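User: My collaborator sent over this chain with a note saying "see what the structure looks like." That's all I know about it. Can you take a look?
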Amino acid sequence: MEELVFRPFHFSDQSAVRSLVLFGLGDHFGHIDETMNPDLDDITNSYVAAGACVVVVETGARIVGTGTLVVETAGEGRLVRMSVARDRRGNGIGRKLVNYLLEEAKSRGYHRVLVETTEDWQDAIGLYRSCGFQTEGFRDGDIHMALDLT
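Assistant: Without extra context I'll predict from the sequence alone. Here is the result:
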């Protein structure tokens, strides 16, 4: 198995990360309206400049995963824009990415991490549950989950 390298997002990753996330959304929803995701047009300004931790996962020279930990409130973070390349799903990359971001949350002093996804996205829900997230509720077709780090 190829070595996975987890590293911070670089400006030069913009196109690859944007495509990875949009393709993942398209795989789930069947299509994607790219204009509904303006934050992906400038990841540096949307996330990095705001203090978020944007991570990419590489194997060889290819980005095969990405995820972002944003500040939710004092002491809380939120996972957003999680995606793994279609041909690499089911190989544990998603779990390793979540765990990497949970370690980052701990290092930032967060006591809790939140995540939400659509309530019919069973693969994502299963991943988050397997990492310890608990369901907090449902709203507008989304499932809201949380993990206490303390």
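A starting point for your reply to your collaborator: The chain has a mean pLDDT of 94.
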